[in-house]
Amino acid sequence: MAEKWSLGRALRGMFVKETIDENTWDDLETALITADFGPDIAEALIEDMREKVARFQTEDPKDLKRMLVEALEDRFAKFDSTLKLTERPAVVLVVGVNGVGKTTTIGKFANFLKRYGRSIVVGAADTFRAAAVEQLATWAERGGAQIVRPEREGQDPASVAYQTIEYAKRTGTEIVLVDTAGRLHTKAGLMDELEKVRRVIEKQAPISEVLLVLDATTGQNGVMQAEAFLEHAGVTGLVITKLDGSAKGGFVLAVQERTGIPVKLIGEGEGIGDISGFTPSAFAASLVG
Ligand code: GDP
Questions:
Q1: Hey, where are the domains in the chain?
Q2: ipTM for the assembly
Q3: Does 2-76 match 90-288 in CATH topology?
Q4: Predicted structure pTM score
Q5: CATH class held by domain 90-288
Q6: Where on the phi/psi map is residue 229: left (φ > 0), alpha (ψ -120 to 50), or beta?
Q7: Cα torsion angle, 276, 280, 282, 286, sign
Q8: 94 lines ligand 1 (CB under 6 A)
Q9: How close is the Cα of 9 to the center of ligand 1, in Å?
């Protein structure tokens, strides 16, 4: 995984020192806060490690590395990061504020599922801008998915979602990814629209996942922007994008603990293959570097 966002560089100096002293804890705290864990988690992690250092009576900073990986793994693993896609069709709503990487994520996710042999259709239920539909169509094609487009600009998003699920049922397509609007300036309208999309879908098929896409580079501000989705959209999983361009890997843990919703996918680049499922142990290890 890209070193850019791992804590590795910040911590390397610390792990090769002779002994653990007060500076070690200060440096560790700074590194954790810089990586966007937030002060509360940083403090809790340090307390946990101080306690372990005392219990195991170690003075070797190398032990800290293993302890940190374990502490992170434990915290990550409190959440169930498995995608629930067993229904047929499995309907996934993808929500989030414009610009976070929603369209790209849908293409990458389709490609990811395709590699597991699944068939996918994408529903272009963000019907407001024709250009957005075209961009989604390009990504769907790249990802090896079919697409159901609106028949005209501004068509009722719920009716596009309806037609997409009809298509999946008719053709036996296994997974439906529904794109939704993310224009922030019409928050109330947007949530009403989303509720209607959900209502219409639920008459046809259960919704397997509602994935909220968040941009790691926007950190806590991004979460605040997305609060309306967290409140109203029945989010079941988070997708954290742009982890490649960011030194903010701690955001993944911070956002999971703050929202109480598991991270299920991570985006690490602009290419079609730059997405992966979330595995706590692998992520903790790569984060510490
Ligand atoms: P949308 O408005 O939410 O649909 O966002 P887009 O999918 O159009 O993405 C917005 C920008 O973010 C584009 O330039 C994407 O290439 C870029 N982007 C999306 N995901 C990632 C990622 O994981 N890493 C990087 N570096 N860029 C990304």
A1: 2-76, 90-288
A2: 0.99
A3: no
A4: 0.94
A5: alpha beta
A6: alpha
A7: positive
A8: no
A9: 26
